[in-house]
Amino acid sequence: MKSEIINRIASLRNFMRKHKLSAFIIPSTDPHSGEYIPKHWEARKWISGFTGSAGTVVVTLDKAGLWTDSRYFLQAAEQLENTGITLFKERLPETPSIVEWLGCVLNAEDNVGIDGWVNSYQETSNLQKELEKKQIHLTLAPDPFNELWTDRPALPDNKVFIHELKYAGLSYKDKITQIREAIRRNSCTGILISALDEVAWTLNLRGSDVHCNPVFVSYLLITEYSSTLYIIENKLSDEVKDYLTENEIKVRPYSTIEKDLKDFTGKLLLSANINAAVHAAACAHSLIEIAPSPVLFLKAIKNETEIEGFHRAMKRDGVAMVKFLRWLKAAVSTGNETEISIDKKLYEFRAGQPHFNGISFDTIAGYKAHGAIVHYEATPETDIPLKPEGMLLLDSGAQ
Q1: pTM of the prediction?
Q2: Which residues pair with 333 in a beta bridge?
Q3: Which of the ends of the chain has fewer CB neighbours closer than 10 A, N or C?
Q4: Nearest residue to 58 (alpha-carbon basis) of 43, 79, 73, 70
Q5: How confident is the model over 203-250, as pLDDT tens digits?
């Protein structure tokens, strides 16, 4: 694996030379500024071999570094060993920022490349301002991984499903009325919603494109008189298509968002977390208002149906946990249980509850010393048996 990483970095450097770039920055996000992302956009993991959920890789023509936080210092040090990638431990006084480091290893007038689809407008603007102070240029470059990552996972095409009104508590039409009021208050004629949780909430739809998150890859463009969902169409069942038609929601291919925004006229409300490529397209013929998404605030205020749903969900999960803990005490005494086996058993107890829709994050089951490893997840190589002594750290959740 280490030799593969070295070869991947070499291929990226060839791409950089072709595009006259002295450095390339690879974040952990996707076009929707997601913290948890589909495999298609896990380029930072592919180029470095580092599998933690947070981190940024920067590659120059002769150096490479990974910046990550204290949750992953031990894991990153192990996974980066002998790859030629230096670990930079964030938030330690001796650790330079990415811009500081680039200022030391690059020359004035050098070009730093980023993929505008996976870097937010806000982050890109800040990065550009800081690099300009060092006379270094920031360039929106093509996505190198479309060319280099030959077995790159496709965009997810999992089916979307309807989140029923009896759970949502507020219909799409009620929500769209509130959103349009917010658009008018901002003196805008439209809004582009790109955060996947906000699209799902607005439409009362759910999906499974992101591990442990009930969302689907899409954009939602809302104007005073229309709504357009940008999505891979084969994700839509006939039932969902009928639902969208009934609610007068148009459907356009996910890949056409850039072209359509270039043709959009009016004043468009965008969140600062919008990706830089979409922002650039929207600026072609539109006026832009950068402001917090109104959906963020509407979604934060829970209605009575949602609150009652939380209570019911917590009770069901509590029942599953109590059953599990009762089982665990007797099971461990037999000496046949391990970190992985109790993870599977807890899943079984949760899955036995009504309306179970999967786990909400990968379970952390760390026995004794493993409990001290932040975000530990047992593997067949690290799995150890449990005994009726010592401490077990169990961090888990369900949808």
Answers
A1: 0.93
A2: none
A3: N
A4: 43
A5: 999 999 999 999 999 999 999 999 999 999 999 999 999 999 999 999
